[in-house]
Recover the amino acids of this structure.
């Protein structure tokens, strides 16, 4: 049996009203490169909640094996939360009425 343990440090920096996120940081090792990933705008991901995009970044860098941390920053700091109803047909797919 193999037991593996690690300490993962997570940090997020938001404005006081949490409307803007300035930094999302995760570190999982002491030795290795630190990646900086620049995205367009932040989601509501924080030090504890991870969205699909940030999870993909973490997993990709961890699999490379040479990184020990990542800083995620954005061109725009305003937190955008978009909810898309994928079950409702869009107007573009509706049959025209005659």
């Amino acid at each position: 049996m193999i037991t593996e343990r690690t300490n993962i440090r997570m940090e997020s920096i938001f404005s006081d009203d949490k409307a803007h996120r300035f930094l999302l940081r995760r570190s999982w090792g002491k030795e290795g490169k630190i990646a900086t990933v620049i995205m367009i705008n932040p989601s509501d991901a924080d030090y504890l909640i991870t969205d699909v995009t940030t999870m993909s970044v973490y997993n990709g860098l961890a699999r490379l094996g040479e990184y020990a941390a990542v800083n995620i920053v954005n061109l725009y700091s305003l937190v955008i939360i978009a909810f898309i109803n994928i079950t409702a047909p869009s107007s573009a797919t509706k049959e025209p009425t005659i």
Remarks:
- The helical segments are 52-64.
